[in-house]
Amino acid sequence: MKRLLITANSPGEMAGWVRPILAAWKRRDLGPVDILLLPCTFATGEEERVARSLEGVERVYKPRDFWKLLWKDGSLYQDGHLLHLGGDLMYSAFLSWRWKLESWAYLWARPWWDGAFRGYFTKDEWGVRWLKRRKIPPEKIHFTGDLVLDAVRQKVEAPVEERTEQISYLPGSRAIEVKSLTPFFLEVHRRMSQRFPRVRGVLHLSGFLPLQQSEALLQQPPDPKVGGIQGYLEGDTLKADGVELQVVRNNGLQHLSRSEVALSIPGTKTAEAGYLRTPLVTILPLNRPEHLPSIGLVGLLDFLPGGKYLKAKLLLRLRDKLGLLAHPNMVAGRALLPEYVEELDPATMSERLTTIFEDKKKLREVSDTLRSLYSWDRRPAEELVETLSNYSFQAPSSRK
Asked: Is there a contact between 183 and 222 (Cβ–Cβ < 8 Å)?
């Protein structure tokens, strides 16, 4: 039996990548699985709770446990594997060298940490080229496919062909996102329902938000800088001023697959929409840039006094250099539907969404394009786990 240690640190990684790996590992009955959570600006604070609830997980280590682990005996993981799914590669490299682990990474690589890793998994040909540009030896690169596909397949057997007159609203997994965007989406949908009386609206809530907390967040008054209307909950329905949104948590992907269009912030959810062939309008509201998470050195400003406001100024300066944000647009190399990175208000957004929603021909064309871009043929988690199980143990090389 081999023990698997997974590093992860955000809702997208936990829901989109960890779950399929756990399922594939369990099907082969390979051994216990532990999760090491690492520091992350995209974290919700609920990752530990979610990780402990996942079937097949034996141990969960908190971010602050890392340095203690580093100086402990790593014999528990000898002859096992470390799979890096998220966080800075430095952490996994240090553990790999310290404990002499056989370590692998999904998507990411850095030349200076390469000696710590046995191999790398990537989801597409672009990823293969990206790894080679970072001087990763070709024999260490394994093209398995996108783990998000397996996460989607756990909830939806296949994309549906028939759509209903429905719009999906996806505010994100962090409490601040739900708090500020729920009134915004509610007002957008109120205006949409005036133009399209039969249109249904679905508000997708993340499982990373505890039920009681999410209920409170949904009923908050609008942020004056973002706008919107305050709603109130009746069961699973959020209501206000003659408009209502159905609130979904556990069956969100089924609703997303049936929607004619989705309105979402960037994240793993945009890849899910791609696999479900649901046309997607992406927004990154800059009304409150200090609340936006970021990667790299900019993201670290969140942990410094006054750093969030400096980060806000930097993000505003960098917005024209962000490139495409939605996964389907990145895969296509162009914006299939618009991305709006600016200060937004419900009135303007509803007008833009109205134009898109009225153009049924364009929506069908986008859905057809997504069909050509997102194949359901592979079993990424199975291929990844098979690679892990078939390789004999080899200790990492010494740090160069």
From this structure: yes
How high is the pLDDT of residue 394? 63
118 vs 95: CA distance, rounded Å: 13
pLDDT(344) > 60: yes
Min mean pLDDT across 43-57, 165-179, 305-319, 335-349 is at: 305-319
Element (H, E) at 347: helix 346-358
Sheet containing strand 200-204, strands side by side:
232-234, 237-240, 243-248, 200-204, 164-170, 259-264, 280-285, 339-342
Instruction: Over range 144-171, report the average pLDDT.
Output: 93
> Do 183 and 53 sit in the same domain of this protein?
no
Q: pLDDT for 180-199, tens place per residue? A: 999 999 999 999 999 999 99
Encode 34-60: b = buried (16+ Cβ within 10 Å), e = exposed.
bbbbbebbbbbebbeebbeebeebeeb
- Tell me if 218 sits within 8 A of 181, measured CB to CB: no
The first and second tokens of residue 107, run together, are 């998507």
Q: How far apart are CA 74 and CA 100, in angstroms?
A: 8
Phi, psi of 315 (to 5 degrees): -65, -40
Q: Domain containing 261 — which CATH number? A: 3.40.50.2000
Number of domains making up the chain:
2
Report the distance separating Cα 137 and Cα 129, nearest Å: 11
Place of tokens 């980060």: 311
pLDDT at 247 over 70: yes
Residue 242: left if φ>0, alpha if ψ -120 to 50, beta else—which one? Answer: left
Phi, psi (5° rounding) for residue 120? -135, 140
List of residues 6+ apart from 73 with CB closer than 8 A: none
Give yes or no: residues 85 and 229 share one domain. Answer: no
Sign of CA dihedral 127, 18, 87, 119: negative
Residues 290 and 200 in one domain: yes
- What's the whole-model pTM score? 0.88
The answer to whether 382 touches 323, Cβ cutoff 8 Å, is no
- Provide the domain limits for residue 351: 164-373
Q: Which of 161, 265, 243, 262 is nearest to 196 (CA)?
A: 243
Whether 273 has a pLDDT exceeding 60, the answer reads yes
Strand partners, 36: 7, 61
| pLDDT(311) > 50 | no
